[in-house]
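Section 5: illustrative case.
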């Protein structure tokens, strides 16, 4: 496996499939009474988070702990970052303590790649700005595989604030690697510049996409959060209008077959991009995604730390 995991494009089909298969085995640990495996005993993992997180940070922490690693959380709030320490100095300081792997989240696109270029240990990108979030794409693929089986030729609609979404970018890359087809649906203002070069189709019409009229039958729908904290201008007139055009309302749910899973990476804005009927209904796999997050991150940590040692031996 690659030394660091910075982009979903770092994974070829064999490697991505191997990770997803390993995650199936790791998932079994979740239902055991004693949730502890020994392979990363004596290894130290630091979660270095410069941006808020609930799911990603805690699932990396749980994943590391269930594999018996020591996991330490360092966040910008409460660290010397708030005293003005630079990213490079913070990263080098943490890495100098004998850390085996860094999990890094940062609000600027490209920042995690910079950290990886400064430190000697492998780095996992847990989200950098609007750029990438590869382990989210892996846990989404894991969840989709659990529902749909193999992803080759499956059609996934990714809907909402694509422009600010690292989740969308990583998903487009990984789903393409796995042979699936993606349609991105958003108002024109929320499609990123250069999306024409991405390996996917795009549309502004959510109803035409969900009904299958525009791009063929949809096998899964992934709703994205409207990322207000990253918005600098007016991307849509009002929240009400956004919800009317792009929210997954109860009426829109009816356009989907009953077995079409609805994904959302969380945190959700209920009533904006997703209705409670969609978030809590029988098609929703939101909590399966959270469960998958632990299993997939165990697989990533295992293959990057123990897997590499096995290879060297
Ligand atoms: C996503 C993120 O932080 O990029 N959330 C997550 O990791 N579960 C998506 C989001 O914040 O909307």
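Designed sequence:
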């Amino acid at each position: 496996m690659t030394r660091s995991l910075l982009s979903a494009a770092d994974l070829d089909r064999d490697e991505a499939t191997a990770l997803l298969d390993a995650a199936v085995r790791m998932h079994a640990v979740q239902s055991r009474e004693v949730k502890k495996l020994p392979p990363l005993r004596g290894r130290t993992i630091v979660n270095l988070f410069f941006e808020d997180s609930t799911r990603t940070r805690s699932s990396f922490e749980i994943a590391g702990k269930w594999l018996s690693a020591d996991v330490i959380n360092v966040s910008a709030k409460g660290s010397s970052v708030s005293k003005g320490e630079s990213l490079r100095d913070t990263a080098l300081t943490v890495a100098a303590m004998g850390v085996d792997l860094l999990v890094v989240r940062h609000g600027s696109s490209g920042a995690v790649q910079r950290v990886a270029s400064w430190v000697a240990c492998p780095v996992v990108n847990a989200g950098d700005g609007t750029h990438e979030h590869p382990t989210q794409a892996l846990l989404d693929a894991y969840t989709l595989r659990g529902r749909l089986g193999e992803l080759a030729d499956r059609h996934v609609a990714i809907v909402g604030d694509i422009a600010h979404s690292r989740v969308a970018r990583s998903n487009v890359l990984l789903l393409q690697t796995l042979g699936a087809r993606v349609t991105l649906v958003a108002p024109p203002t929320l499609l990123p510049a250069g999306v024409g070069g991405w390996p996917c189709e795009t549309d502004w019409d959510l109803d035409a996409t969900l009904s299958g009229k525009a791009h063929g039958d949809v096998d899964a729908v992934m709703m994205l959060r409207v990322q207000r904290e990253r918005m600098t201008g007016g991307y849509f007139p009002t929240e009400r209008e956004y919800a009317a055009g792009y929210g997954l309302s109860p009426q829109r749910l009816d356009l989907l077959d009953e077995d079409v899973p609805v994904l959302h990476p969380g945190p959700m804005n209920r009533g904006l991009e997703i209705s409670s009927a969609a978030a809590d209904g029988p098609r929703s796999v939101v909590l399966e995604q959270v469960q998958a997050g632990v299993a997939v991150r165990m697989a990533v940590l295992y293959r990057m730390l123990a897997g590499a040692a096995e290879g060297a031996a």
